[in-house]
Amino acid sequence: MTADRLATAVEAIYGAALNPPGWPDALQTIADVFEDVGAVLVFERDDGGFGVIESASLSPMIREFTNSFHGEDLRAIRARERGLYVNRDAVTDRDLVTPDEMEMHPQYKLLMNYGLKFCAAASVSPVPHLAAAISVQRLAAKPPYSDSELATLTKLCHHAEASLRLSIRLLSAELSNVGLRDALSRLGVGVFAIDSLSRVVFLNKAAETSLGDGIKIQNRRLEISSRASRKAIEQAIAGALMATPEDLLAAPHAMLIQRENTSRPLTIYVLPVVNTSAWTRWLTQARVILLVVDPRPGDPPDPTTVRDLLGITLGEARVASLVGSGLSPREAGLKIGVTEESARTVLKRVYAKIGVSKQSELAALLTKLVLK
């Protein structure tokens, strides 16, 4: 694992934001960080089915699995059942299956036909209602994934999460045949492009809509009304402008801007513009991109925001977001596909981590931090 490979992966991830067909190559660069065979991105479709994007190196195995394998996807099933019980965002085989299952289960036998065995997977949440995960596949001859490797994958997946916020909207709006500036102008997520002097050189219509309520442009620079938010955003932009390849692995986190006339804060992600042709071709002066997400009234808080603010896992944040917005543990479990018992177990762990003891206290905390 080298800094160069990490930088290449982050660059490819953000390049795919503006060129969604580039995701197979981006997935391969993620696998290359670990010197592994390839990686897949699995996401839930609107119709309830699942889509898969894979690096080219895994296409033959994915094709056989999709067209010819009639057994259960044991790792995916166990990841949903047991992933919530793992106190980290990334999981691997030892978290999900027994050694005997790895030797005997048909899914692992199919993998062995391609010389594969171990995986490392992390959930991503590009939009609140979409389930997605990235999984890296390893040769059977190599050792299992270490905790440090799982931590690195988690950080890379945070970058993928931010990139997918743009990719998904570009794909769903079928904007691949229009210029990027036009495409960004049609998106429902605000985009500010910042140059090396911290000046705004581009903003789309959604970003324009966010202006005037806690955030404005003064002398070509963003100005935040809240003093605390202003300092944090300015520091994040300065850090992104100075980013080195070693810095790129630092995961982007949700930052909140309190507004004057609207109760819910804006969520902002500060992303460095790395040396990808996609960014430099279309936004030649941009050195930092700010994604601005305006939550819809009545929706539960974004799980990624809850995760970043409370310091819990994404799985825990999904449960906390739903229960904190008024759902019962049973209803929350149904929404994320786990049992009521599992949801309650996760909820108890969340309570212990954040220092509350009941649902009303969780709701009050989320209201204070996120819902306002």
| First-to-last CA distance | 42 Å
CATH class of the largest domain: Alpha Beta
Mean pLDDT: 83
Give start-end ranges of low-pLDDT stretches. 173-178
Helix content: 40-55%
Strand arrangement within the widest β-sheet reads: 2-1-5-4-3
Largest sheet: 5 strands, antiparallel
Reading the helices and strands in chain order gives HHEEHHEHHHEEHHEEHEEHEEHEHHHHH
Number of helices: 17
Rg from C-alpha positions?
A: 21 Å
CATH level-4 homologous superfamily of the largest domain: GAF domain
CATH architecture of the largest domain: 2-Layer Sandwich
Give the count of structural domains: 3
Shape: globular
Looking at CATH, which topology of the largest domain would you report?
Beta-Lactamase
Number of strands: 12
Class inferred from helices and paired strands: alpha+beta
Strand content: 15-25%
Task: Give an account of the 3D structure.
By secondary structure, this protein is of the alpha+beta class. It folds into three domains: 3-172, Beta-Lactamase (2-Layer Sandwich), CATH 3.30.450.40; 180-293, PAS domain (Beta-Lactamase, 2-Layer Sandwich), CATH 3.30.450; 303-371, Arc Repressor Mutant, subunit A (Orthogonal Bundle). It has helices spanning 3-18, 23-33, 59-67, 74-82, 93-96, 99-104, 106-113, 147-172, 180-186, 205-210, 227-241, 277-282, 303-310, 314-324, 329-336, 340-354, 359-371; strands at residues 38-44, 50-54, 90-92, 116-124, 132-139, 190-194, 200-203, 215-218, 221-224, 255-257, 266-272, 288-293. The strands form three sheets. It has a five-stranded antiparallel beta sheet with strand order 2-1-5-4-3, with helices on both faces. α15 packs across α16 (340-354). The longest helix is centred in the middle third of the chain and has 26 residues, at 147-172. It is globular.
